[in-house]
Amino acid sequence: MRMKRRFRRERLFCFSGDGYPRPMTQMLGLAAALAWPIPMIVALFLVARDRTLRYRILWAVVCFVGIGAFWMEQATGRWGFVPVAINLLGPGSQPGFYKATLPAGAIAVLILLRLRARKRASL
Predict the structure, then answer these.
(1) Which of 19, 22, 24, 100 is deepest in the core (most CB within 10 A)?
(2) What gap in Å lies between CA 38 and CA 1, rounded to an integer?
(3) pLDDT tens by residue, 98-109
(4) What is the pLDDT of residues 38-69, one digit of tens each?
(5) What is the pLDDT of residue 19?
């Protein structure tokens, strides 16, 4: 009886579609796996929109460079980080794993465009 009540209480706070509770670490792994492409796409959009940027194609490629690779096994919650990985177009995919990367190229492009906008506004 106690186990059923506990399971029902945990079930209220699960975010998975199958109704089984997931630990917070797995939820953070899923959030990281879903979030890493967002800055890359935003940076690509801003590079494509800026007509005064030289070497736009090169900057567009730089938007998709990631450094480091975070991985998490879905079934066990085991995770790891490979700091020396350099990824182009993301860390790849493998069934049963969440993978993410630090979008360093996109962050560099966003900083560059922000500094250029400040410089242009001050003139």
Answers:
(1) 100
(2) 45
(3) 888 999 999 999
(4) 999 999 999 999 888 889 999 999 999 999 98
(5) 52
Q: What angle do CA 32, 105, 120 make, to 5 degrees?
A: 120
- Split into its structural domains, the chain has a count of 1
Compute the chain's Rg from CA coordinates: 20
- Among 97, 55, 91, smallest CA distance to 73 is for 97
Structural domain contains residue 108: yes
Question: Which one-letter amino acid corresponds to residue 54?
Answer: R
The DSSP symbol for 91 reads S
Please identify which residue in the block is written with the tokens 């990631």. Answer: 66
Domain that holds residue 39: 23-122
Q: CB neighbours of 1 closer than 8 A, spacing ≥ 6?
A: none
106 occurs within a structural domain: yes
Q: Which two tokens stand for residue 91?
A: 């860390």
Contact 92, 99 (CB under 8 A): yes
CA 90 to chain centre: 9
Q: Is residue 8 part of a domain?
A: no
Do 29 and 76 contact (CB within 8 A), yes or no?
A: no
